[in-house]
Amino acid sequence: MTTSRAPGHRERKKQQTREALSWAALRLAVERGLGDVLVEDIAAEAGVSPRTFNNYFSSKAEAIVWRQLDRLHRVTDLLRERPPAEPLWEAVTHAATTTFDHGESLPDQQWTTGVRLMLGESELQAELIRGGAAVEREVAAVIAERTGTDAGRDLYPLLAAAAIGAAIRSATEQWLRTDPPVPLPTLLRDALDALAAGLPAPE
Amino acid sequence: MTTSRAPGHRERKKQQTREALSWAALRLAVERGLGDVLVEDIAAEAGVSPRTFNNYFSSKAEAIVWRQLDRLHRVTDLLRERPPAEPLWEAVTHAATTTFDHGESLPDQQWTTGVRLMLGESELQAELIRGGAAVEREVAAVIAERTGTDAGRDLYPLLAAAAIGAAIRSATEQWLRTDPPVPLPTLLRDALDALAAGLPAPE
DNA sequence: CTTGAATTTGCGGGCCCCGCAATATTGCGG
DNA sequence: CCGCAATATTGCGGGGCCCGCAAATTCAAG
């Protein structure tokens, strides 16, 4: 069987396994709650051995959170690609709203439930934010470059990146609890606008 | 021995044990790195059994982070006590700077090292922020009350609380890496001022 | 088909955290 | 001062996580 395909035949399979594990972990955790899911179960669901699970992820929480973090990394990438002349907040708003705009499809019920779970179980929150911190550092670097500040010395890039993270988290949390579903990009824009306006007391 | 003191004789001893455990955990982690500290060691250091450690803290990380979180809770308390008429950002700035103002004493070397460790080891970061999330909810509630918004429905209190958290974290991180030590309250004020001004791009 | 590299797997082991029941301590009323 | 009830501490046992290591399997390339 000379199924000679692209060079990344092996790579692709690894990526598939990773996806399968992450997805299985999320699905099972949604169904039963994180505490009642064993690594054994996740591995079985993905069709690999328990030992293999830990070759891909170093904890259950990391597996569950991986997809969401992947999204956040994409925000950074998008931000890098915005024209340097564009005002900072405009660029950020664009990058964030684009990333979290799932086309026309309303929030997939399964996905929504999953994220809701994440923000509920504090162990997952922690894992999510731990990864988010890494992303924030990237964002800070991009901001530093754009504004001509020094990410290593000035407070500004750090603070701005942290504030953006705060906006994304707040908007997401708000999104999860609005029953008549509001589009996430809209909430994101509101949050970022409020930030840029200095968080004036409402009313 | 009729050493009959205040009613909280028992309580005080528990609190002492808790302090001892948290401090021991922090000290050992600073010396050897978190990975090379066993619960057994911490318990020994504090003069209790290993099992008792877990009666006070449900993980090593929780023990180490406890003191810092205690500080954050105090910010909330202070904020509650500020006069309701005072503008929000003024009240927040006051509460935060007061809490982190260690009088004249320059940053205790030991303490500084400890905090630096925290922000280095990502497991501790995560634990710190997990606890911080609880505090943020409290802060959001206070803000909601002050501004007449609904913490359960409006985005504002959530966002403002998250932004304040971001400011505190950024200022702390900045504080840790400025070699000619700058007073933390000053950095905090800078960060909060920048937030209130809408994070204008510098220069 | 052979071969070398990459992946998966099983095993062993150290450690964490918790429930439970036995013990020890403490404050209180008699 | 004493015994009692409440509270805290301790030891034990056990399930589970995560990792290092080395054997086995898979895969691409010659």
Automatic annotation (TrEMBL), chains A, B:
Residues 15-75 form the HTH tetR-type domain. InterPro entries: Homeodomain-like_sf (IPR009057), HTH-type_TetR-like_transc_reg (IPR050109), HTH_TetR (IPR001647), MftR_C (IPR041347). Residues 38-57 bind DNA. SUPFAM superfamilies: Homeodomain-like. The keyword Ribosomal protein does not apply. Gene3D superfamilies: Homeodomain-like, Tetracycline Repressor, domain 2. This is TetR family transcriptional regulator. It comes from Actinoallomurus oryzae.
